[in-house]
Amino acid sequence: MKLLPLICLTTMLGLIACGPPPPDPRAKQLWGDNLEIAKAQAAKNNKLVFVNFTGSDWCPACMALHDHVLTQKAFLDFAERNLELVFIDFPMNKPIDEEVKIANHALADQYGIQGYPTVLVLDVDGTVVHRVEELGNKNARAYTADLKKALNK
Hints:
This protein is of the alpha/beta class. It has helices at residues 3-17, 27-30, 35-45, 60-70, 73-82, 98-110, 140-151, and strands spanning 31-32, 48-54, 83-89, 118-122, 128-132.
């Protein structure tokens, strides 16, 4: 019986240690929610536009992509030099402005989004140059390496 508290404590510590790494502080600055602004910035800075269609508060794969990849140093180092970052959110449990909701649904229709997460990389004209519809259980380094390869960067 004396081992039970020790086993519980060890299990809890193990679960805490397996959580996502802390986000890079740059994440909040680098991510936006307006595709038109991002395309204009991309044209000005000779970058592509990375668009994450997400269900941020209900989609487990979306939350994993956000926590383990899109807010991490390895991804943001690459993104800062090469991408303008945009999230298009479809939350279920947090409020979203009606105009934003309508605009997000129009973008999802325009780009044929069927599920979440879906990531598009666009040129400055809005043409899709790369599309990913699954995370594939990758960390930020592996995801970024695949993205670099796909974009020839």
